[in-house]
């Protein structure tokens, strides 16, 4: 965490210097299975978190809010949250039929994905891909982010984009790639790391080509320069290194397989 507790504040400069030298020690044997990253999702009208009669109900939760599946926190979709993008992966998630839950992951070049076939034309499965056992193979773009808190701390989460959210992911990636800064020696421009800036992520009411409505992520907008907050910039760099070193694993929530509404899936045909 970035916020300092009383115990941390009592450390002398010499102690802090020694701790900095030993940073990361004690976790040398940790692999991807040791660090779980939570989902950030958008609540829909049928999400159990907004239904008072469901066990998963969260007081104050409404459709259109952002929901951190790990902490149980909900955030107003209009106000949004400040995020820092620190990593990205494109993966294929495998979902068992009949809402049977998560069954694993595969790479895009996996022969099983190449052999997948679409669902029946004219049905809600038309724009989904299935393997020979009936499992859905969902092309998924995972944006690893830090959610910045008002108290100065942060949570790591994944803004997972499949089905209609892929269009949001694509626009966000284009925005990140399009940022160019001048080199100090005047020899041209460069594309800075994705965590050079923080962004404001909100939600909006989207619709598909049949007119069905659902809530979706907005394309995040630039908020602050991270170099103005050196400590958080360093946290972002560290998070990026853990991701690129393969030490982060997405914690798939039980409800994730039900998070894409029929409206979202039909919308995929417009992409």
List the topology elements:
Blueprint: H1 6-9, H2 13-21, E1 36-42, E2 66-68, E3 74-75, E4 81-95, E5 102-106, H3 111-114, E6 117-118, E7 129-130, E8 136-148, E9 154-161, H4 165-178, E10 181-182, E11 189-190, E12 197-201, E13 203-207, E14 213-217, E15 221-225, H5 230-244, E16 249-250, H6 262-267
Parallel strand pairs: 1-9, 1-16
Antiparallel strand pairs: 1-2, 2-3, 4-5, 4-8, 4-12, 6-7, 8-9, 10-11, 12-15, 13-14
Verbal overview:
With 271 residues, the protein is of the alpha+beta class. The chain has a domain at 36-88 and 148-179 and 192-270. 19% of the residues lie in helices and 31% in strands. It has helices spanning 6-9, 13-21, 111-114, 165-178, 230-244, 262-267, and strands at residues 36-42, 66-68, 74-75, 81-95, 102-106, 117-118, 129-130, 136-148, 154-161, 181-182, 189-190, 197-201, 203-207, 213-217, 221-225, 249-250. The strands form 4 sheets. Strands 1, 2, 3, 4, 5, 8, 9, 12, 15 and 16 form a 10-stranded mixed beta sheet that branches. A two-stranded antiparallel ribbon has the order 6-7. A hairpin with a 5-residue loop joins strand 2 and strand 3. It starts with 5 loop residues before the first helix and ends with a helix.
Helix content: 10-25%
Question: What fraction of the residues are assigned to beta strands by DSSP?
Answer: 25-35%
Radius of gyration: 20 Å
Q: Helix count?
A: 6
Structural class: alpha+beta
User: What can be said about the biggest beta sheet?
Assistant: 10 strands, mixed
Gap between N and C termini:
39 Å
Instruction: Name the shape in a single word.
Output: globular
List SSEs in N-to-C order: HHEEEEEHEEEEHEEEEEEHEH
Report the strand count. 16
Question: Quick check: average pLDDT?
Answer: 84
Low-pLDDT windows of residues:
1-8, 257-271
